[in-house]
Amino acid sequence: MRADLLIVGAGMVGSALALALRHSGLEIFLLDGGPLAVKPFDAQAPFEPRVSALSAASQRILERLGAWEGIVQRRCSPYSDMQVWDGSGTGQIHFSATSVHAQVLGHIVENRVVQDGLLERLHDSDVGLLANARVEQLRRSGDEWLLTLADGRRLRAPLVVAADGANSAVRRLAGCETREWDYLHHAIVTSVRCSAPHQGTAWQRFTDEGPLAFLPLSRDGLQDWCSIVWSTTPEHAEQVMATDDATFRTALERAFEGRLGQVLEADPRVSVPLRQRHAKRYVDEGLVLIGDAAHTIHPLAGQGVNLGFLDAAVLAEVLVNACERGERLADVKVLSRYERRRMPHNLALMAAMEGFERLFQANPLPLRWLRNSGLKLVQQMPEAKALFVRQALGLSGDLPELAKV
């Protein structure tokens, strides 16, 4: 089979790119190693452990792709405030959407819900969907890429987009180099029910072991569930994962200083090693990396998928504009326009998150004093807090058309 464009990976970012290009006139195949069926949604089902904090920019992109309505009909939890404090000191800071005259800072949404909202629209489109299509070989064949799947099928295209996640097979098979390092932390992820309502607020405490986030979830209009992301040392994570449910709930409540009362229920836990990774190049002749295939960052601010959606929107814009000008899409000169727009932004956010994480992990007394003083200072500076909020909303920088107001 041959196409103009092969998108490998039908996760949130790959699916968004396929939808953004559905009217481009290109013959597109979107392939994934798993099934591409939309699961029936049960509003009473437990929350999926993996969630994303979708920014206003991501919401706009999903609205324009026609997926947002399906997401809202399933389950999503808006939040208007963020409360951050240092567990080793007295510094704290509060961010509010009202500081920039917005209604919400974002929405906490289960990744599966976002995925199904996108897949619904893809099934209604003329994008070719190839399920259970695991890439086993990738090589150049003239001016095209030849992909061989695990079941023996072969696909050809002049342009391949790797959207197949942090452990991208396409990136590995194509020999793309990355810079990467281990955070020496694991993230324990689950959902819990608390005795006090979350108040539409994203809560984050920096502990001696790492940041602990309680992200608001809603079910049947109630505000008693939260998604937990607990970043801690591998040794502590192993201990926490080995405890029984009651012990875990007590430890979590203590680590969170009981800000939301008792932890009454906890879903099964998942532990994920944290590793930062960034591709040295996002593009090569006929090849593009987007989303986690290009960059993975600390889940500190839940920005990973937002970067990926912006990658997809910018790449779609670059390719559509090139089509209109009659340019060869696989030309590295064309693809570099995407890299030039996205790499500086991604690197800047990665550096900021890295610095933030290191500062709050620092034990020396002068650094503890610095971060506490810094939090107190910023708390007293409305302009600085508003700037942070605009960044979190995705309201600044080089925005693609799909993300603009």
Explain what you see:
Strand 5 and strand 6 (92-96) form a beta hairpin. The longest helix has 30 residues, at 332-361. The chain has helices at residues 12-20, 56-64, 68-74, 111-123, 169-173, 234-242, 245-255, 304-324, 332-361, 365-379, 382-393, and strands spanning 5-8, 28-31, 51-54, 77-79, 81-86, 92-96, 106-110, 128-130, 135-141, 144-149, 154-157, 159-162, 178-194, 201-206, 211-219, 222-232, 263-266, 270-279, 283-284, 287-289, 295-296. The protein has 11 helices and 21 strands. The protein is an alpha+beta fold and 405 residues long. The chain starts with a strand and ends in a 12-residue tail after the last helix. The model is unreliable at 364-370 (pLDDT under 50). Helix 1 (12-20) packs parallel to helix 4 (111-123), helix 3 crosses helix 4 (111-123) and helix 8 packs antiparallel against helix 9 (332-361). The strands form 4 sheets. Strands 5, 6, 13, 14, 15, 16, 17, 18 and 21 form a 9-stranded mixed β-sheet that branches.
Q: What secondary-structure arrangement, pairings included, does this model have?
A:
Blueprint: E1 5-8, H1 12-20, E2 28-31, E3 51-54, H2 56-64, H3 68-74, E4 77-79, E5 81-86, E6 92-96, E7 106-110, H4 111-123, E8 128-130, E9 135-141, E10 144-149, E11 154-157, E12 159-162, H5 169-173, E13 178-194, E14 201-206, E15 211-219, E16 222-232, H6 234-242, H7 245-255, E17 263-266, E18 270-279, E19 283-284, E20 287-289, E21 295-296, H8 304-324, H9 332-361, H10 365-379, H11 382-393
Parallel strand pairs: 1-2, 1-12, 2-8, 5-14, 12-20
Antiparallel strand pairs: 3-7, 4-7, 5-6, 9-10, 10-11, 13-16, 13-17, 13-18, 14-15, 15-16, 18-21, 19-20
